[in-house]
Amino acid sequence: MSAYREAPFGGYWLGLYTDLTWELGNTSREISAKGIYAVNNDTLELTTVKGSYFNGDTINTFIFEGKHLIEVKNTGIKGLEIELNKLRKK
């Protein structure tokens, strides 16, 4: 899955992979944090193993809402538009 949000200075890109890892950065080539994720119903939890979020936290949670990911606790990302979603629900 990949999701993106444009911003006045850069943007936010999130990539989720089948091995339950993720990457976050301004683009898919400018990665600032990496980690592992878990999906529980409509909730996505990202835990960092390298780097941190913009507020220094190491855990972030999003809610799936249609074609959007809405951030539960504001780290500055706020929300992302899902561009590609091949995640399978269990």
Give structural notes.
It is globular and about 30 Å long. The chain has an 8-stranded antiparallel beta barrel with strand order 1-2-3-4-5-6-7-8. The model has no long low-confidence stretch (mean pLDDT 86). With 90 residues, the chain is an all-beta fold. The chain has strands at residues 2-6, 11-16, 21-27, 30-40, 43-50, 59-65, 68-71, 79-84. It is built from no helices and 8 strands. A hairpin with a 2-residue loop joins strand 6 and strand 7.
Write the layout of secondary structure elements.
Blueprint: E1 2-6, E2 11-16, E3 21-27, E4 30-40, E5 43-50, E6 59-65, E7 68-71, E8 79-84
**Shape call:** globular
Q: How many β-strands, per DSSP?
A: 8
Radius of gyration: 12 Å
Distance between the termini: 16 Å
Tell me about the biggest sheet? 8 strands, antiparallel, barrel
Count of alpha/pi helices: 0
Q: What level of helicity do the residues show?
A: under 10%
Mean pLDDT: 86
Q: Which structural category do the helix and sheet elements fall into?
A: mainly beta
**Which strand order does the major sheet show?**
1-2-3-4-5-6-7-8
Percent of residues in beta strands: over 45%
Order of helices and strands: EEEEEEEE
Unreliable parts: none
